[in-house]
Structure formats: structure tokens, C-alpha cells
Amino acid sequence: MSDESLCPKCQSPHIYQDGNLWVCPECGHEWSPYASAENAESQEDNQIRDANGNVLQDGDSVTVIKDLKIKGSSSVVKSGTKVKNIRLVDAGDGHDISCKIDGIGSINLKSEFVRKA
């Protein structure tokens, strides 16, 4: 059996197609066969991309696209907050943007929650 007919999360052979997505009934994982090829390409070039797929660089300005609660604090980074002069870092936890936000201070963000301004 080829790898295309296995769930990428749990390797179960019991998958089915639901519209444009594939679904695994054992673990509940849903995926698009087209998105996996795009993700593989973006991982190969080791570039950090925003939510829209634009390549980010040090010094760029980004806009937060979702309200983000800050752990251990009652503060929230509101959707639409513009962040200037970001710095890209290689953090193992997925927080790959280091920046300063007015009123909050230094913070690390995930690139999936920002878009290039």
C-alpha cells in the first residue's frame, strides 16, 4: 500500500475522501492532498511565511490577524495590531517572530497569526 493511502498523522489505512479533503475516522485528522505538497515545498526552503504564504524577513512590518491571549497575563494582542521591525528567530516551539508591541513589551509570535503589512 502506498503512503498516499495512509493517514499522515496516525498511519491508519482506513481513510476516506469527503469533498476535497481526506478524513481519518480513527484519529479525526483531515487533510488536503494538495496542501501537503505545498507544505513540503515551504519546509524545504526553510523560509518563514505569514498566514497568506508571503515570505517574511528581518525588519518587516506585520499585522496580527487574530486576538491573541498572552499566557500568564490578562493582556490581549488585538486583531489588527501593527508590529514594526520584526526579528525572525529559530524557536523550537513555533514562535518564530520576536518583536516589541506598544503597551505590552517584548513578545514572541507565531507566523501563522500575522500577515505582511
Entry summary:
The chain has 117 residues and is mainly beta. It is built from one helix and eleven strands; from the N terminus they run βββαββββββββ.
Q: Can you walk me through this structure?
A:
The protein is mainly beta and 117 residues long. It contains 1 helix and 11 strands, in the order E-E-E-H-E-E-E-E-E-E-E-E. The protein has one helix spanning 33-44, and strands at 16-18, 21-23, 30-31, 62-64, 68-69, 76-77, 82-83, 87-88, 97-101, 105-109, 114-116. Strand 1 (16-18) and strand 2 (21-23) form a beta hairpin. The termini are far apart. The mean pLDDT is 85.
Question: Which descriptors would you attach to this protein?
Answer:
117 residues, three-stranded antiparallel β-sheet, 10% helix, 27% strand, elongated
Number of strands: 11
Strand/helix succession: EEEHEEEEEEEE
What spatial order of strands do you see in the largest sheet? 1-2-3
Distance between the termini: 45 Å
User: Strand count, sense and closure of the main sheet?
Assistant: 3 strands, antiparallel
- In helices, the fraction of residues equals 10-25%
Low-confidence stretches are: none
| Count of discrete alpha- or pi-helical segments spanning 4 or more residues | 1
Rounded mean pLDDT is 85
- Structural class given helices, strands, pairing? mainly beta
Q: What is the percentage of strand-forming residues?
A: 25-35%
> Which of globular, elongated, flat, extended, rod-shaped describes the shape?
elongated
Quaternary assembly:
single chain
Radius of gyration: 18 Å
